[in-house]
Amino acid sequence: MPVRPLRGKVASIGKGRLGKGGSVRRHGGRTNPGRRPMPGWRSIRGRVAVVITVPICLLLTVAGLAVHGRAEALGDARTTRAEVGLSLRIQALVHQLQRERGLTNGLLGGEKEFRPPLSATRKRVDTALRGMRTESAVEDVVQRHLRRLADIRSAADRGTAGQAATLTFYTSAVNALNAVDPVAETATGADRQLRDGLAALRELAAAKESVALERGLLNGVFAQGAFQGREYIDFTEVRATRVAALTRFRQVATAPQRAALEKAFATEDAERATAYEKQTEGAADGSPLRADARTWWEAMTVLVDDLYAVQQSVGDDVRDRADRLSHDAELALAAYLVTGTLIAALVAGLAAVASRSLTRPLRGLAETAHDVARRRLPAAVARIQQSPQDSAQLLTPEDAQDTPDARLLGGAAEIAEVAASLQQVEHTALQLAAQQAGLRRNTTESLANLGRRNQSLVRRQLGLITRLERQELDPDALAELFELDHLATRMRRNAESLLVLAGQNPPRPTAAPADGLEVVQSAVAEVEQYRRVLIATVEPVRVRGHAVADVAHLLAELIENGLNFSPPTEPVEVHGWYDTEDDTYSFGVVDHGIGMSEADKARAGALLSDSGEEALVAAPTRFLGHLVVGRLAHRLGEGAQVHLFDTPGGGLSALLALPGRLLAPVEDPSTSPPPARPAVSSLLNGFRAGVARAEARNPQGASS
């Protein structure tokens, strides 16, 4: 039968260890690819992690913003508390400067008895100034406005200082200190109660400054006995400033703070000071004033001290409120942190549980599917296909077992449905495999039965033809009988090929070893165009009896393939040589035909390397010759190798290498082979060069 499919690429090259000539070793297993690891974010676990991570990040962002707001509130509260403390220290310094200003103005007006309290006041001012050196803003004001303080004091002691200039000096210093007071500008974003307290403290400081300035101004006027120059105008402006500041204070102050203020203005000293103020209302024209400067000073000093006490009380209230706000901000910050941490931990825990409850059954389902696809299903199918029994009775309880429920514990209903579908797929696949195995077995048995019938008929036909040949004396008729005998021989080979494909034919019995040349001649006798076959150089060899028929059949397939796909005028050469290095004997079939493409070689190699029934079912009918050659080589046993090479100058060369165990000793080693023609020698060299190139390209090849 034609074996055109043999013109494919031998699968041995690049599949396994290459023997001589790059042969395909047929006794090798396939490596099943393992499961590919799932890429990170493309897996279900990765996507669940993404879905869970995004809300957690958003939650943490919101919590972070809230914590940041609480932290800012805490910082503002602590800053306010520190600023209130600084404000109270500044106002203590201002209070002493105001006292020194009034005493100095009275001293310059002629009241010598103010000198002792002035000395004590100056010491308190100096102490307060030393305490303010650590505050950079206050230190700058001291350097700019109080650097001439020692000179002013010396001039006042000598009586050479101008009264108006001295009053202006102290007033400028007090105003500068009030300007750097931290509570001078109230923050609009602060707590309402704290904001009102800061405003009250600021307005009270302005009112107290006005009262102190009025005390110092009138102290000098009363010492002189009358207003001079612009003193009355200054006096009215100071009183107007005091009244406006007190009005604003009453608007923002609390009820206790307003009560403390009213109490300060309701004392006897305050009323006495008010009486002195009324005496000045008609003295704008310089009329003499009959008032005791010392009494005025003492009354106003009590009022200023009472206002300072109210100022300290308001400052304490503001500081307490700032402390309370700071404490509340600390608690709120801690609560936000703890709450945010607990929520994040809770969400992360729930996410982990949800992810685990989803991925664990999926992982179990994937492992079960992998086990079914890689182990259970292939094993069951292989057992079904290899068993000669009825395939429907081969399904074992293990084949029909369900996926363990423990794998899907906690899984969703959808996952359970997928598991049930997987079980159904497995059962269906096993049933289909059983049905396919039965159909395949029936087909194979039918082919084998048909092959045996044809083989029996052909044998009877050959026996009849042989008897006719013995009885025929006419040369022409005898020649026709010989042709008929040749056709019957080919029919017998085709029947045997059919049995080879069915995998049920025993080799033709051969009692004794046969010479290599006889094996080649037997193969040539089974091809149609045997006259085109040139038996070139066949070195002496003897093939063992059990392998003679299979070797002859295999060579016949190769030779007929070369005859069918080479020009009618070109011979197909057969060579044989012994390789002492590998202890193998090689038969070479060389044609000078159209050759083979790489795709055909690849297809041929795939079929030559597969001797199972799957190849018979899957292979197209025009490629069945591949399977015949492959199965014959497989039946010859390990070490039998089949190779395909391109013939130099065009065409294809096939090589059959037989191992030493299939060879018998040569009876007459002295017999020398006929001399090879130069063309044949070059072909043999080409064979050996092709083998060397294949071994160089595929040092780890596979043999068949």
From TrEMBL:
> Which stretches make up the Histidine kinase/HSP90-like ATPase domain?
550-659
Annotated InterPro entries:
HATPase_C_sf, HATPase_dom, Nitrate/nitrite_sensing, TCS_sensor_his_kinase
* Record-linked SUPFAM superfamilies: ATPase domain of HSP90 chaperone/DNA topoisomerase II/histidine kinase (SSF55874)
Q: What class of enzyme is it?
A: transferase
- Record keyword Chaperone present: no
Q: Which reaction does it catalyse?
A: ATP + protein L-histidine = ADP + protein N-phospho-L-histidine
Tell me the keywords, alphabetical order.
Kinase, Membrane, Phosphoprotein, Transferase, Transmembrane, Transmembrane helix
- Taxonomically, which superkingdom? Bacteria
Domain Nitrate/nitrite sensing protein positions: 92-318
**What are its E.C. numbers?**
2.7.13.3
Where do transmembrane segments lie in this chain? 48-67, 333-354
UniProt-recorded name of the protein: histidine kinase
Q: Which organism is it from?
A: Streptomyces akebiae
